[in-house]
Amino acid sequence: MNYFYKNLKGRGRMKQISANIITWDPREDETYLNGSQISLLEGEVAFENELMSPGKPLVTWYSQQNYQTNRNLAKLPLLTRGQTYQLKLVANVEPRRTLYLKVSFYSRFGEVLQTVFIKDAQGEFEYP
């Protein structure tokens, strides 16, 4: 986790903000593999699949996982209710503006509480 400081608008104060960098590793993360050509380069993933249906999730990350089931740790941080968060996608996508970020919030019973779509490379959401 990285920490940086942000100037609060017109208040002359600085606020500590944390930043998590979530990387994509197709060997570990839940990735759409059917017909996909994936190349791992140093610090990069090249993904190509001309037959992939629109709206199909490319990769999925979780904030909670059962380690004994899949031997992976959760990559997403635990969020605080009522707080606003920002997501920024760092990727080269062709054609442009065709990759969306979908953030789903679940109850402890696995029911979807809310879903947020971020259609640009950067966006904000409030944790319900």
Number of helices: 1
Major sheet? 2 strands, antiparallel
Q: Give the terminus-to-terminus CA distance.
A: 23 Å
Helix-strand pattern, N to C?
EEEEEEHEEEE
Strand content: 35-45%
* Mean pLDDT, all residues: 81
Poorly predicted parts: 1-8
Give the strand tally: 10
Structural class: mainly beta
Helix fraction?
under 10%
> Which sequence of strands runs across the widest sheet?
1-2
Morphology: globular
**Radius of gyration of CA atoms, rounded to a whole number:** 17 Å
Protein name: Accessory Sec system protein Asp3
InterPro entries: Acessory_Sec_prot_Asp3
Pfam families: Sec-ASP3
Q: What would a concise description of this structure say?
A:
The chain is mostly beta strands. It has one helix and ten strands, in the order ββββββαββββ.
How would you sum up this structure, described in words?
- The chain is built from 1 helix and 10 strands; from the N terminus they run ββββββαββββ.
- The two termini are 23 Å apart.
- Helix content is 3%, strand content 38%.
- The strands form 5 sheets. The protein has a two-stranded antiparallel sheet. Strands 3-6 form a two-stranded antiparallel sheet. Strands 4-5 form a two-stranded antiparallel ribbon.
- The protein is mainly β.
- The N terminus is likely disordered.
- The protein has a domain of 75 residues.
- It is globular.
- This is Accessory Sec system protein Asp3.
- InterPro entries: Acessory_Sec_prot_Asp3.
Topology:
Blueprint lengths: L1 E6 L6 E6 L10 E2 L5 E5 L2 E5 L10 E2 L6 H4 L13 E5 L12 E6 L5 E7 L3 E5 L2
Antiparallel strand pairs: 1-2, 3-6, 4-5, 7-10, 8-9
